[in-house]
Design a protein that fits this description.
2 domains, Immunoglobulin-like, about 10% helix, four-stranded antiparallel β-sheet, flat
Length: about 230
């Protein structure tokens, strides 16, 4: 009897050790995607409120030029609305896929006044930009919100060693693979520098060109990683 009891105890210990040392089964990643929102609405109208699926994600509001981080949402249909004092809200419906990162850019578009001598009218708009899948090398997604149908953008290294030129059509995202490693470069339009951009590490970056209420062109640049769900 003592021998049987000893064997049972030994078996219990072995079973416990097996349970402890066995690799834990990895849980599947949740079915989520991500959205990022950039507000480039007219600063004179005050804060922008971002409403996703009926909820204001930051009641204090966003200033022009600010952006959110990655907002995780379940896959499937969603709605987004940007609200600003004195203007009708702009709303869009979208479907988010698993693991997708989608950027929404809110911007102000000048509407032709009637009669022409009246002050300009503004209408808020939303533009979706899908994230690049590649994380190796340096990649730019360029977006022009400028009133011109097309602009010619020059990307120039600090010592003017090389200039890369690309044509940007309005509201049409353009992916550009850079020839240069980690560096700083200037963005130029008609030989006029509009911004300096510094790439910290290899990866995805976005640059949004837009005109303010006076017509001056600005560039907003930021690191644009692919967000991943915790699984």
């Amino acid at each position: 009897m003592k021998t049987i009891s000893s064997r049972l105890s030994l078996w219990s210990i072995l079973l416990l050790l097996t349970t402890i040392t066995a690799p834990a089964q990895q849980e599947p990643s949740p079915d989520v995607g991500f959205v990022r929102v950039i507000s480039l609405l007219n600063a004179s109208r005050g804060k922008t409120h971002i409403i996703i699926d009926g909820s204001d994600i930051y009641p204090a509001g966003y200033d022009s030029g600010q952006k959110t981080g990655g907002i995780g949402l379940k896959v499937g249909p969603h709605s987004i609305s940007l609200q600003q004092q004195g203007l009708p809200p702009v709303t869009a419906q979208f479907t988010l896929n698993r693991g997708e990162t989608l950027t929404w850019i809110g911007y102000a578009e000048k509407v032709v006044s009637n009669p022409p001598n009246d002050p300009p009218l503004w209408k808020n708009q939303l533009l979706p930009v899908k994230q690049s899948d590649s994380e190796s090398g340096d990649h730019l997604i360029l977006v022009s919100l400028c009133p011109q149908d097309e602009i010619q953008l020059q990307i120039q290294t600090p010592q003017n060693l090389r200039t890369q030129t690309t044509r940007l059509k309005r509201l049409l995202p353009n992916r550009l693979d850079l020839w240069m490693p980690k560096t700083e470069f200037a963005l130029k339009i008609d030989d006029t520098i509009i911004s300096h951009v510094s790439l910290e590490d290899p990866g995805n970056y976005q640059i949004v060109l837009y005109a303010d209420e006076t017509g001056k062109i600005h560039a907003l640049s930021f690191d644009s990683p692919n967000f991943t769900p915790a699984g």
